Amino acid sequence: SFEKGRILWPRQWYRGFCETLRLIKKQCAEVPNVLSMNAPQDIAIMFDKPRCQALLHDSQINVPRSLGTVHSYAEVIERMESTRCWRVFIKLAHGSSASGVVAYQTNGQRHQATTTVEMVQYKGELRLYNSRRIRTYRNKHDITMLIDELCRHNVQVEQWLPKAGYDQKSFDLRVVVIGGKVQHVVARLSRSPITNLHLL
Fold first, then answer.
1. In whole angstroms, how far apart are CA 77 and each of 60, 117, 137, 138, 163?
2. Separation between Cα atoms, residue 157 and residue 64, nearest integer Å
3. What is the C-alpha to C-alpha distance for residues 165 and 172, in angstroms, rounded to an integer?
4. Mapping DSSP to helix (H, G, I), strand (E, B) and coil, where does residue 19 land?
């Protein structure tokens, strides 16, 4: 049965999504005068975070430093220590929006993971759900459980670059590029206050 918001096998979802994109491409090729605004193979890349980041990097577009794929919370800590990068984003490799994204920072003593992922224990099983509410986990045991569970679905870790801020709010930009030129820019203000925890 369908459980709204549950994070369940994103890699398998992605494979099915790519198959659907291939079907759309095939059907469009069989119909004359069909105009595609975006190539299906390009759409597929946008939902594959490691591949998309590598493509941007190879095209000399600045991207956050990658700490690579990891398989456990312990491996996240190991990468952070070896790179001396104490603030990272942990992201599901396949998905959209902020599904399964965790902003994590530590100084070795204190820990903070900010995310919209809700953890629910059900009959001895840990289940993860997307929610609209931002949650902050500070208990190391809870953070370990959360990240270990996300790692089962393939994640990548990258340096957490702080967003720009204005009036105690953070914001980012949505940029529309047509024909290689910036045509439109929208500043998107975050609903939540800037939550930079100064641990170091």
1. 29, 20, 16, 15, 23
2. 10
3. 9
4. helix
Which one-letter amino acid corresponds to residue 120? Answer: V
In one-letter notation, the amino acid at residue 149 is E
The whole-model pTM stands at: 0.83
Strand partners, 158: 66, 89
Q: What is the amino acid identity at position 169?
A: K
Per-residue tokens: 198: 């100064």
Tell me the mean pLDDT per 10 residues along the chain, length 200. Answer: 86 95 94 87 93 92 91 96 95 87 94 95 92 92 97 94 83 87 89 48
| CA atoms of 119 and 39, how far apart (whole Å) | 36
Distance CA 45, CA 49 (A): 8
| Of residues 72, 66, 80, 200, the one with CA closest to residue 143 | 72
